[in-house]
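Sample A.
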Amino acid sequence: MSFISAAPEHLSYYDLQLDHPHWEQATVLDFGGNRGNALMAGRIKESNYWCVDVSWDAIEHGRRDYPEAHWIFYDRYNFEFNPTGISDLPIPDLGRKFDYILAFSVFTHTHEAEMIELVKELRQLLAENGRLAFTFLDPHYVLPGDYNPLLRHHHPQTNLSWRLERARGVNPDLPVQQLLSKAAGADWCALIDNRELYLGQDDPGIRKTGIASSYRTFCTARYISRIFPEATILACPEGFDTQGMDRHHCCVLKARKENAVGMQESKEMVTP
């Protein structure tokens, strides 16, 4: 059976980040939405919701629970969630544009080049005033004090230290402090198999790594701002309950617009 998420709904996260849109009237594409993780909050009209995911079983699960929504299996290769899929398969033509496209913890499992490629495709699916919002994990983001018991010996407590301490639960010999020192100051890092840490251009991507159990990527807010200079970058809302797990940043992008000579219009970067 392919992956079916047990995670709680994530629309409340986006509701805070996007300043409480009128979800009831919006068309929404939940990219990597699994069994309908944005729909479960009950605020999006079922017939206005599209879910695209690489897990066939999750798509079937969502279709049974929400038959009026639109469920699209995306047969793209992903070693964790669809290992028999097709490499580099474009996002399918959905026949419409969307007011909001959401991607929660999707690009935390992809190489930088794949993230850039998919974001470019997703922006083409936005309505004129639409927004694409996707999450990423800043490895150096400092978590609140006493955030999680696993981090009681860490100063500061960060997203990466939480992830490494969690990995040490199944691999007691993991050199957590050594890996944290290695990652200090890095803008991009990838944790493979919960034991090997690659920085920046040394990240091989999962295709070159061979058999592995997991591939988790981290990038700083300033690095995402360099990749997408027209984006709004938002830290995890203080009022959002992460249940003691890592805290996601959000990158918000408008539809890609072209001027008369086919060049992208310049836009101001806003990074609260």
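Sample B.
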Amino acid sequence: MPYLVAADAPAEPAGTRLRALLDRPGILPLPGAYNGLAAAQARRAGFEALYLSGAAMSASMGLPDLGILTIDDVCFFIRQVARASGLPVLVDGDTGYGEALNVMAMVRAFEEAGAGAVHIEDQLLPKKCGHLNDKKLAQPQDMAAKVAAARKARRHALILARTDAAASEGLDGALARARLYMQAGADAIFPEALTSAEMFRAFAKGLPGVPLLANMTEFGRTPFFTAPEFEAMGYKMVIWPVSSLRVAAKAQKELYATLRAKGSAETLLGRMQTRAELYDTIGYADYEALDASIIASTTPKS
């Protein structure tokens, strides 16, 4: 049955459900899902929570990840991912879309759209992908004020504080910022662009008892580690933020090249999801059955 109207649709707020997942032993994997179809597929694969990446949202709109998106843009993505999957979603809140009041508005809007958590980062605009160079950082106290504002505004969503300081201020600087952000009210810390297992372990050792998120993005500064390896290094969550979009974009590029060269997509049929598979994923028959059970044609009485 579609999660939009299913009898077993979640009754508890997304943040409450996400907390329950984090209270369990082990690491929580959060694959990136940048639209409703990807979210439905991730749920069918067995995942229990999802991540919504600013880079993936931007790229899907044909834009660079430079803080161009608006709160309303992101809410459009949150609604479809949360609706299609019924799962709690951790959302990339970039730098918070402004200062304290803007951060509070963002948190409320994201919660209302269905988010279970949001992370904000300590970069200045124009912000960059965390794995690029020459990132400009906010003053620690300014970022702490944003975290406190987010905590004040939230009703159920978890607040994660991301620090990009490791590249410019070293591990000690990143740890000092993380401790300040925890004091300001963060529920968890996201250390961005760590470059070795030793750094991941040292960061976790410096914040005992604090839930930590690891970013396993491709083509960045972080070597490849598995979810169990991150868990062994002291991490509670791991995201693969843009993986689904990268795979889909590569496939689409090959499709368009084939269409242009051959005038047909027939040679790619074996790589396509069939109509039946697509309809099954999106619950086509369920919607039809639901519609038929609610709306019945009647003959006007004369």
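B remarks: The mean pLDDT is 92. The longest helix spans residues 243-262.
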